[in-house]
Amino acid sequence: MLPKQYRLKNKSAFKATYKVKNSSHSGGVTLFAGILKKENAPTKVGFVVSKKVHKRAVKRNRLKRLMRESYRLLLKENALGHSQKYLSLIFVGTEKALGKNFKEIDNAIRKLIQGIE
Questions:
Q1: Phi, psi of 9 (to 5 degrees)
Q2: Structurally, how many domains does the chain consist of?
Q3: Distance (Å, rounded) from C-alpha 9 to C-alpha 12?
């Protein structure tokens, strides 16, 4: 489970991150990056799967769990690179990502993290 200090929770924080419009897409997962950090605080991360993607909460929650676990492993490996320069990150799952297994989701998230400037 992702530690509390790394979780993005506030609705206003989500809106502020979306407002920056700094995004990239890979393998059914979209990454939105917020503004650059000024102080030395941990990067907050949010995971979103819309109800429009699938009506079943079980499917949506599974995709969120896979994305969260992938990010947690990257955090543990200290392989986050330039993504730590941002105040907040949001990973959004799409319909393409629903049927994928952990390895495919992990590859997509690694690709997004490496591609961020």
A1: -120, -40
A2: 1
A3: 9
Beta bridge partners, 99, equal: none
The pLDDT score that the predictor gives to residue 2 is 85
Q: Among all chains, which residue has been given the structure tokens 């989701």?
A: 105
Local mean pLDDT, 10-residue blocks, the chain (117 residues): 89 93 92 90 94 95 95 91 90 94 95 89
Instruction: Give me the domain span that covers residue 33.
Output: 4-115
Q: Quick one: how many helices (H) and strands (E) in the chain?
A: 3, 4
Q: What letter represents residue 73's amino acid?
A: L
Distance CA 38, CA 50 (A): 31
Q: What is the CATH number of the domain that holds 58?
A: 3.30.230.10
Transcribe 34-65 into DSSP letters: -PBPSSS-PPEEEEEE-TTT-S-HHHHHHHHH
- The amino acid that residue 115 corresponds to is G
Task: Return the C-alpha torsion angle 103, 109, 111, 113, nearest 10.
Answer: -150
